[in-house]
Design goal:
By secondary structure, the chain is of the alpha/beta class. Helices cover 30% and strands 28% of the residues. The protein has 2 domains: 3-153, Rossmann fold (3-Layer(aba) Sandwich), CATH 3.40.50; 159-298, Nucleoside Triphosphate Pyrophosphohydrolase (Alpha-Beta Complex), CATH 3.90.79. It has helices at residues 17-29, 52-62, 77-91, 127-135, 142-153, 200-212, 271-276, 285-295; strands at residues 3-8, 33-39, 67-72, 97-101, 115-118, 159-169, 174-180, 186-187, 189-192, 216-217, 221-228, 239-251, 260-267.
Length: 299
């Protein structure tokens, strides 16, 4: 007699019909069932929102006799396969195993020593689509609200990367600053890096175009980085760190766009007085101080 093993993620808010048919078909063939749950390298994500314990409880509710084990993802298929084999033989050294999978399963990547069986797909059930259906649903229950707390408290603290750009002209004697609609303070041009950006230099050029229009500048030069005392994150564990770039204005008509209300050139040697008078945002004080010390001393 062999022990059945299902290797899957079960990243859904409940077992859908495809899951149930898979589990029922496998249990009808074997008296023993082991479920190996894949554990992603990230602590909570859109693709892997549920941790091991949440999925274990969900499965155990309807399939109480199943033995459920965790297995970490690994970048090398061969070593992942070896880890899977070692996990099974380590827990059950005298068992013979048959590994089951279905649509988009682990089977094409498995190169271990146990038999694998691919079961036919039962309907067009999709864990991704099911997650999307529940992604914006709000339920009026204590469990729902407790689940939100659980999700946030079981995430790593995050750093959000932003880019700021010092646009200079006239041999770096003048700098272009912007003013937002929600603030009367002058600030560096910039914003959050996006997942679509190929680099922080790319992010800086994108932000510059979005906020100033189609102007031409020279090379983006990395200057420094600093944690930003952004009021939105002041009382949060997550923080912002900005990368400061500089470039030379070449040509083109600039205009305040996106969330900027106004753009204006300022003499670099006027910045210290502006900062003292509170005319510039406190969020960029460290970055502006860096630029003043670096470029004014050479004038």
């Amino acid at each position: 007699m062999t022990t059945a093993v299902i290797v899957a993620r079960f990243q859904t808010p409940h077992l859908h019909e495809g899951h149930r048919r898979l589990l029922q078909e496998v249990t009808s063939r074997h008296s023993k069932l082991v479920i190996v749950l894949g554990i992603g390298p990230l602590k909570g994500s859109m693709r892997n929102p549920y941790d091991y314990y949440t999925r274990e409880k969900m499965i155990k509710k309807d399939f109480a006799e199943a033995v459920i084990l965790p297995l970490n993802d690994y970048p090398c298929d061969r070593e992942w396969s070896q880890n899977l084999d070692n996990l099974l033989k380590g827990v059950f050294p005298n068992e013979v195993f048959c590994l089951y999978g279905s649509r988009d399963s682990f089977i094409p990547y498995y190169c271990g020593r146990f038999q694998t069986v691919e079961l036919p797909e039962h309907g067009g059930f999709s864990a991704t689509e099911l997650r999307k259906q529940y992604a914006d649903k709000v339920f009026d229950s204590n469990d729902f609200r407790a689940g939100i707390l659980y999700a946030y408290y079981n995430q790593y603290n995050k750093v959000f990367p932003t880019v700021d750009i010092a646009v200079f002209r006239h041999e770096r004697t003048e700098i272009l600053l912007g003013k937002k609609t929600v603030s009367s303070k002058w600030r560096l041009i910039g914003g959050f890096a996006d997942p679509e950006d190929q680099s922080y230099e790319h992010a800086a050029r994108r932000e510059l175009t979005e906020e100033c229009g189609a102007i031409e500048t020279g090379e983006m030069i990395y200057e420094t980085s600093a944690r930003i005392d952004d009021w939105r994150y002041r009382n949060e564990t997550d923080k912002i760190i900005s990368l400061l770039f500089s470039c030379e204005y070449l040509t083109g008509m600039y205009s305040a766009q996106d969330d900027l209300l106004e753009l204006q050139w300022f003499k670099l040697n006027d910045l210290p007085k502006m900062m003292t008078a509170g005319e510039t945002t406190a969020e960029h004080a460290q970055l502006l101080t860096f630029l003043i010390k670096k470029y004014l001393k050479n004038k």
